[in-house]
Design a protein that fits this description.
- There is one protein chain.
- The chain has about 400 residues and is an alpha+beta fold.
- The chain has 19 helices and eleven strands.
- The strands form three sheets. It has a seven-stranded mixed beta sheet. Strands 6-7 form a two-stranded antiparallel sheet. It has a two-stranded parallel sheet with strand order 10-11.
- A hairpin with a 6-residue loop joins strand 3 and strand 4.
- Helix 8 runs antiparallel to helix 11 and helix 11 packs across helix 16.
- The radius of gyration is 26 Å and the shape is elongated.
C-alpha cells in the first residue's frame, strides 16, 4: 500500500498558498484493507474513506469509463492494480494532476509543474470532454488564478468549444451549475468565470439571460463601455472590490438583465428595463434553483438601482418609500448589501472605477435617522391603529428631510 497527497493541496503548496484541505490517493489496497485499518467508508460510486483520526479523505486509485451523457454517466474501476499515473490521468487539469509521496517528492507525469509556472490551464487528456462540469471548474480556476495572469491553453479552449457544439454542456444539471457559480463568485476575479464560459459558447446554454447582454448598446454618455455585457462584468468586478459577500456580487452581475430584451427601435435607451430585469432574475433563479436570499436581493437591486443613483434628487417621501420597498426597517442588514451592489453599478463603467458615490452615505444616514423613530413612543403618546403608522411615516420623512439638508 502506497499513499500519495494529490490534487489541489499539491498545486497550492507549489504556489505558496495556504493548503485548506488535503486529499489522498491509496495505491495497492483493497476496501477491506482500509476497513481493517480503521478507515470509515463514505463513497458510493467508488471507495472513499475517512481517516480515523484526521477525517481527511482517502480514495482508492481508480480509473473511469464514460457510459452516458453528463457528469453522472461514468463507470469506475478501483482495484489494487490501478497505478497512480492511471488515477492522475482521469483528472481535469494538469495543475491538478500532480502528487506528492511520503518523502515529499513530486510525481508529475503530465507536466503540471511546467504549466503552473507558465500560468496555463490545460486539460490532462481527451477524457476532459466527457464531463461538462469540467468546463465550469476550469472557468472557476480562471477566476481564482486570473490575477496572476493564468490563461486557458489554446487546445483546451478548442476542446471546450467542441464540447458545447456537441451538446455535452446541455447535460449540466442546475445544482452543479449553481454550486460552481457560487464558488466562482467567491473568487478574486469572478468575472473571468463568465468570460471563459462566453468565449467557449457555454454561457448561452447555462446563462442565456447574461449571454444576450453582449453586443447590446447603451448610451455612450452614461456608459463609455457601450456594451451591456461588458458593463455587467465591470460591475461584478467592482462588487468584488467592494464586498466579499456573494449575494452582493450576484445581484451586481444580474441587475441589468432586462436590457437584453429592449426592443431594437428603443436602443440605445432601455425604458422599463428594471421591471424586465426582475422577471428574468426570477426565471433564472427558478431554473437554476438559486437560493431565495440571492434572488431576493437581486430583484431589489434590479428594480431600485436607478432610484438609488438618484437618491439625492428624490423627495424625502420617496426615500421613505424606497426604504419600505426594501423592507429595511424589518431587515436593516439588507440596506448595506443593496447599497454596495448599487455602488458597484455606478463604478462599473469604463474610466469610472473610483468614482465617488455620495448617494450611499446619504441613504445610510437617512435610514439611521428614520429608524431612530420608535413606534412604541407613539403608542405611549396615545396613538392607536392606523394613526400609529401614519404618524410614524410623517416623523420619518421629517427626519430624512433634515438629513438631506446636510447633503445637498
Amino acid at each position: 500500500m502506497e499513499i500519495y497527497l494529490v490534487g489541489g493541496a499539491v498545486r497550492d503548496k507549489l504556489l505558496g498558498l495556504p493548503v485548506r484541505e488535503r486529499d489522498w490517493v491509496v495505491v495497492g489496497a483493497t476496501p477491506q484493507q482500509m476497513l481493517d485499518l480503521g478507515y470509515k467508508p463514505v463513497g458510493k460510486d467508488f471507495p472513499v474513506f475517512l481517516h480515523p483520526e484526521t477525517g481527511e479523505e482517502y480514495a482508492l486509485a481508480r480509473t473511469e469509463r464514460k457510459t452516458g451523457p453528463g457528469y453522472t454517466g461514468f463507470a469506475f474501476h478501483a482495484a489494487p492494480d490501478v497505478t497512480l499515473e492511471e488515477d492522475l490521468r482521469r483528472r481535469d487539469l494538469t495543475i491538478n494532476a500532480m502528487a506528492e509521496d511520503a518523502a515529499g517528492n513530486l510525481i508529475d507525469p503530465f507536466n503540471g509543474r511546467e504549466d503552473l509556472d507558465a500560468g496555463l490551464l490545460r486539460h490532462v487528456s481527451s477524457a476532459f470532454a466527457e464531463d461538462p462540469v469540467r468546463i465550469l471548474r476550469l472557468a472557476r480556476f480562471k477566476a481564482r488564478f486570473g490575477k496572476w495572469g493564468f490563461k486557458v491553453a489554446h487546445g483546451t479552449h478548442a476542446l471546450m468549444k467542441r464540447m458545447v457544439a456537441s451538446g455535452e454542456v446541455d447535460a449540466l444539471v442546475p445544482e452543479r451549475v449553481w454550486a460552481e457559480t457560487l464558488k466562482a463568485l467567491g473568487e478574486d476575479r469572478p468575472g473571468e468565470f463568465f468570460d471563459v464560459l462566453r468565449r467557449c459558447g457555454a454561457l448561452a446554454h447555462v446563462f442565456p439571460e447574461l449571454d444576450r447582454l453582449f453586443g447590446v448598446e447603451q448610451p455612450a454618455h452614461a456608459h463609455p463601455e457601450i456594451d451591456t455585457g461588458v458593463h455587467c462584468l465591470l460591475v461584478l468586478e467592482q462588487a468584488a472590490r467592494l464586498s466579499p459577500d456573494p449575494r452582493v456580487r450576484f445581484a451586481a452581475l444580474v441587475h441589468d438583465l432586462g436590457k437584453g430584451e429592449t426592443p431594437a427601435d428603443e436602443l440605445p435607451r432601455h425604458i422599463g428595463h428594471e421591471a424586465r430585469s426582475v422577471e428574468l432574475i426570477e426565471t433564472m433563479c427558478a431554473r437554476l434553483k438559486i437560493p431565495n436570499e440571492y434572488r431576493d436581493l437581486a430583484r431589489l437591486v434590479a428594480r431600485h438601482h436607478t432610484q438609488c443613483h438618484r437618491a439625492l434628487e428624490l423627495r424625502p417621501a420617496s426615500v421613505q418609500d424606497l426604504f419600505d420597498s426594501l423592507d429595511v426597517f424589518r431587515r436593516p442588514e439588507r440596506l448595506e448589501l443593496f447599497l454596495l451592489a448599487c455602488q458597484a453599478d455606478h463604478r462599473g463603467r469604463a474610466g469610472r472605477a473610483d468614482a465617488p458615490y455620495p448617494q450611499a452615505d446619504y441613504l445610510r444616514a437617512a435610514f439611521a435617522a428614520a429608524a431612530a423613530i420608535n413606534a412604541r413612543e407613539l403608542v405611549a403618546q396615545g396613538l392607536t391603529g392606523p394613526a400609529v403608522g401614519e404618524r410614524l411615516r410623517e416623523k420619518r420623512i421629517v427626519a430624512i428631510r433634515e438629513v438631506k439638508t446636510g447633503f445637498v
